[in-house]
């Protein structure tokens, strides 16, 4: 038998465009052809389980081989095979998906069949023409009394179909590699592609005499079957040379969508350049992409691992996700599972959770900032740490400080430091007053503080160096100044002259004699806006990043230094005022360069005077 005819195109696009531009990356051809071979094999297994195929299954490997001299790549399977009529139906009619028809036919008989069949679009076969200028199919159906069929096509709309002697059932697809695709004749290149896309296919894939895949990846197993060692070993396979994960979540749901996978929590330090694109998306164990931003919420992109779902809709090339209701449901489900896992860890082992906080704190805060539903769950286990190293939940901390840190307006004032060493004098001043100070020194904390002020009632946050301690938490008490109004004005003028810097706004205040003689602060609002801009606030925050730094210089009217500055001659008063000011700069870590050198020399002079 020999027959010639024209391929029937069932799409709006012309064939040359489909075969050349259907896929974003030409290496995809191997994934598609191997997936088709796996489909054919899975179908035969399903028919065997249903009793509709009574022959011996035998070895069901898919074999890939390359012949560099002959310039051919061959993909062979021992699956269903095809008759000549089936080739005309499934190959010649573009976009007629055999997998779709098979699932429809057998969905009532075998619910597992639907989940085992990879093909969706009926277009994968034509990816072969991206790298081949001629493609042959040698196939023989599993059905009794059928002849082998040989189909060939040179990439035009013309094909040739004839009978052929083929001893065994199954299909061989032979690609005659085009001159511009020599890279795919290299065995190392093909092995790389197979390892990338086919590493976890459910049927053994053999290349150069070696099976390259694991047919039962651990995410396809039940959690009860697995040990911690299994999970950590798989993590090391996915991410060689990485530190062990902190913990993981095994996803396993079949309603209202099908989703399996394992999400690992890596060690994430306080840095914004965290590693993304570490979650791999599979569809029925076929690798699709590591671009999962539509499926996984933005803040969960910090996680590593694998997600496998046949319910995530892809475009025809399987390379890009198509957002729809199913994707949104999966996105919501993953968020909930992560929040539930963290809550469980917190409840079961508070101490262990606290020990991991330095690694997961950034992740939790990022999630709270990104997703209100996650915030609602995480507010019960997000932790705050004070300068003494003690951890609190939000509610615990409010209860801890509200009695002592309520101001005259009944606002609870939370004091914090972004650098406990640099701001040590301010931290100590707060502790001396009996106040508590939190450490909020992570990159996202400026945004996190803003969120907490919006969410928590009658709570405000102030950095310890944002003002003098008496003004940070204003009480119904006043400290009287020992200076007259005239002396205060004179003192302000002397310090303004000694400092000679328009960015330094000098004011004389009645503080405790135990407080420092001069205190330099940055207004909380301005400093916070600049911090948020540096942390990536964007938008309206940009204007604050371009403004010059301005500082408030509070001169303590009740400190003995104030009296000395007022009572000495002009030259001596200027030297004392500058020395006191430089001490305040030093406390803020702002004394550098020439000014620091001058301060050291002046200090030596004063010691020997």
UniProtKB/TrEMBL annotation:
Protein's UniProt keywords contain Nucleotide-binding: yes
Molecular function terms, GO-annotated: ATP binding; ATP hydrolysis activity; ATP-dependent protein folding chaperone; unfolded protein binding
UniProt feature coiled coil, ranges: none
Keyword check for Chloroplast: no
Gene3D superfamilies: 3.30.230.80, 3.40.50.11260, Heat shock protein 90, C-terminal domain, Histidine kinase-like ATPase, C-terminal domain
SUPFAM superfamilies in alphabetical order: ATPase domain of HSP90 chaperone/DNA topoisomerase II/histidine kinase, HSP90 C-terminal domain, Ribosomal protein S5 domain 2-like
Keywords attached to this entry: ATP-binding, Chaperone, Cytoplasm, Nucleotide-binding, Stress response
Pfam family membership, one: HSP90
UniProt xrefs under PROSITE patterns: HSP90
Residues holding ATP: 32, 36, 77, 82, 97-98, 120-125, 171, 318
Signal peptide stretch: none
Family indicated by similarity: Belongs to the heat shock protein 90 family.
Record protein name field: Chaperone protein HtpG
Protein source organism: Hymenobacter cellulosilyticus
Lineage start: Bacteria, Pseudomonadati, Bacteroidota, Cytophagia, Cytophagales
Gene name, Swiss-Prot/TrEMBL: htpG
